[in-house]
Amino acid sequence: MKIFERIIDRRIRDIIRVSTNQCGFVANCGTTDAIHAARLLIEKHREKQKPLHLAFLDLEKAFDRVPHEAIWYALRWHGVPEELIEWVRILYADPRSRVEAAAGTPVEFPISVGMHQGSALSPLLFILVMDAITRDLQRPAPWTLLYADDVMLASEQKEDLQRQIQAWSERLARFGLRLNVKKTEYMTTNLDERSTIQVDGNDLRRTDHFKCLGSTLSADGNLAHEVVARVNATWLKWRSMTGVLCDKNIPDRFKSKVYRAVVRSVALYGAECWPATKEVERRLSVMETKMLR
């Protein structure tokens, strides 16, 4: 089945063209591209002392809520031939779920929504759905950034950002998806701004720091919180690997390879996006020196 799904995935990718705002599950793009774009946007506005308002949208159980009809709509919207769409339909033909309990008769019921879990094709189908239903709402990058179901919206005007979020909420609801207002967060580089944004009559949570795709973005553009998060995550990874790194029976050459591949990679995640300072370099150097001892 996996081989069949990958064949369909490859054929669809040869046909479609996804928005450049989408960094998830597309060739030559990844988390660091989105992180760099968001961080650069914040830094430039801080330099020019211009306000920037950002919203980080949280979609509630996004992969599990997509109606199958939205999948067929998205495939046609992207110009995928009916022959390929029919093959995808076969994969989604009469899906059923089964509930078994310790006592009683197992219950089966049909499923008409949601992507197949563990499917090699699901990531592509999801970004096609997101692209098809929101393309007209997306602003040019970096004002709108997507990584699968992670969405960042930005604007220099707070009222404009509120209108954008409301439009996204209504569009997602129209296609069976739901914006989780309780987990959607608002951040602004204008530290004197005390109010927040409302969506559907609910206040969004206001924050000065947001963990975006594993990297901490700060409203003041400072790296302090990101460096602390990297150091803590690296120590956590190092402690999980002490069985290998502190074993005297394992050759140092092998331990060095493990350290570089497993531990140091955690410390340097997203570092190519940092406006690094001597203080940042010093803190990382001190951490690494302690580990190597």
Automatic annotation (TrEMBL):
<dbReference type="InterPro" id="IPR000477">
    <property type="entry name" value="RT_dom"/>
</dbReference>
<feature type="coiled-coil region">
    <location>
        <begin position="151"/>
        <end position="178"/>
    </location>
</feature>
<keyword id="KW-0175">Coiled coil</keyword>
<protein>
    <recommendedName>
        <fullName>Reverse transcriptase domain-containing protein</fullName>
    </recommendedName>
</protein>
<dbReference type="InterPro" id="IPR043128">
    <property type="entry name" value="Rev_trsase/Diguanyl_cyclase"/>
</dbReference>
<dbReference type="Pfam" id="PF00078">
    <property type="entry name" value="RVT_1"/>
</dbReference>
<feature type="domain" description="Reverse transcriptase">
    <location>
        <begin position="1"/>
        <end position="217"/>
    </location>
</feature>
<dbReference type="InterPro" id="IPR043502">
    <property type="entry name" value="DNA/RNA_pol_sf"/>
</dbReference>
